[in-house]
Amino acid sequence: MSSISISLNGTQVSCAANTSVLAFLNAQGISQDGTAVAKNGSILAKPLWGKSQLQHNDKLDVFTLVAGG
Fold it and tell me: What is the pTM of this model?
């Protein structure tokens, strides 16, 4: 299985080729709850996370809501 390099919040990371956004987030321990994802500058709707495959040099920006006061 070959690996690819992507940017996750500005940091280069590796993952297996043909990994879905959802599988990648799960592997990174990132919860779906309160999380938004932009892929290559465009917000990716949550129902598409499992269908959208990562490609070499993709840029993912992951935003997680944090409650506090």
Answer: 0.89
